[in-house]
Specification:
Strand order of the largest sheet: 3-2-1-4-5
Distance between the termini: 25 Å
Largest sheet: 5 strands, mixed
Strand content: 5-15%
Number of helices: 10
Structural class: alpha/beta
Shape: globular
Number of strands: 5
CATH topology: Nucleotidyltransferase, domain 5
Order of helices and strands: EHHEEHEHEHHHHHH
Amino acid sequence: MAATLVFDIETIPDVQGIRSLHGLPEELSGEEVAEYAFQLRRASGGSDFLPHHLQRVVTISCVLRDANQFRVFSLSEPECSEGEIIQRFFDGIERFTPQLISWNGGGFDLPVLHYRGMLHGVSAPRYWDLGDGDYHDSRDFKWNNYIGRYHTRHLDLMDLLALYQPRANAPLDDLAKLMGFPGKLGMDGSAVWKGYCEGRIGEIRDYCETDVVNTYLVYLRFQCMRGALDKVACAAETEFVREALGRIDAPHWKRFLAAWPTVGPVK
């Protein structure tokens, strides 16, 4: 079994970057600097969603599935700095050359990691391999690499299921719940900045981890639909995930399993 890596990131405003770009005084608090940036965005377009290069990465959560393991883990503050978080993520790609799976990773997560990675001098040669690298299988990457939108080494499940039509995009939370999975628990993306300001980085990490497990479960249904798994194999892998989570002694997985009392058949 080739390695599959499902990933999701959580970000906050890059307060120091905003302060530097706009010449804001050091006396302003982080919350005040962020609010200044939010107001600028609202005035220009009606949304306070900051551009990708001003999104500072505080957590990357992953599901790693290969022949030997199903593992959920996070690269997160305060254990790592932003540069370390991003470098360790790309180091994993360097080591495993996994199939990357995301939900809106092409539209958000990966562009953020590109910009922020450059700011920190991150090295990611395997990820950027377009068929001209030094790896023994590099030539294969000319036709299937992590960068091409219609290639599958990175599969943005949201983008693909919508047939690359933004107006057809579905929320992960809705789709997961419609399939009988728990969906989002505890917080959502809009609450991350407030939670970070209140020192709740652990809750942000837990929320991100449940998101990647929801993504993996939806991905299994996709694999069933495209014929890569039959219904028996899909149900068995889904149950395997449930059992693996049950062995983790953490409150957020207890809540997740409580919201997912049974594993029904693939419809």
